[in-house]
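[09:14] KT: can someone run the structure on this one? pasting the chain below
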Amino acid sequence: VALLGFTSGTTGTPKATMHFHRDLLIIADGYAREVLGVVPDDVFVGSPPLAFTFGLGGLAIFPLRFGAAATLLENASPPNMIEIIEKYKATVCFTAPTAYRAMLSAMDQGADLSSLRAAVSAGETLPAPVFEDWKRKTGKPMLDGIGATEMLHIFISNRFDDHRAACTGKPVTGYEAKIVDQDGEEVSRGIVGRLAVRGPTGCRYLADDRQAVYVKDGWNITGDSFSMDEDGYLHFAARNDDMIVSAGYNIAGPEVEAALLSHPFVAECAVVGKPDTQRGTIVQAHVVLTKDVPKDVSTIKLLQEHVKAKIAPYKYPRDIQFIAALPKTPTGKIQRFALREKP
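[09:31] RB: done, structure tokens below
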């Protein structure tokens, strides 16, 4: 065993995942070579700590494998990353969508991030408005991808020459993916189900009974709800436990979040299900507003009407809570379970 990687704890108690030495080379010679096309002249920057496998790959394994460089920050806040990108002309960035929104705002104020050739987004779903704004402003696509500590790194990704908004792309070479129901049976194209993946890396928990839940018949059940279209592209719906069933309707929280984020008053947001006596569960949105926007009933109504106009009206957040900041893990993932526990 080369390393024990601990899951981030977005759903509760972290789990220790075991990875072999060969796994480190697999993610470098797979994702980094195939998708990123890393060259020795590249300079990596990112927000994830090296203790998390997203950061370990992007800020240590990949640059070391290909003779490139990495700029490491003790405090990888968006302002610090922007400064380091400008100073060292970083070419590849690994961070979450929240930080890319801050970078877009900084570019509006004159920041020069033109050295970036690859903006890799993972850790949280990439909202279509962020993808579209980045492409419009830089002329380059963002590389949305999904990985897992259990799988070591990203195993499904968009490509530079094959990308679209609200789409996670296709599996990295060597990996297979399918969408299954609760019984493990593959579902039809276009139907939302549970993502199952297998390939050269996989889940090996250290002395943890949850291994039997994650791995079924050789397939890793990642805990994500996806659909696969007729062309084999994968589309994220929600974490399995983030699907909201309200009055019999299945509502994917990230779709509501993307609608809210498309309004200029919204800086950040997270959607969870809130118990309701009439509907079973309702959509509750926790919203961080942009500066000087009033936190009042008129803003709530405005945002609710905006969502109704963007997506199916029944998906709108019936409860909106204004919050100063969203609870997050050190890697930038939103801790929705903490929002569910709020009174």
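[09:33] KT: thanks! The radius of gyration is 20 Å.
[09:34] RB: yep, looked fine to me
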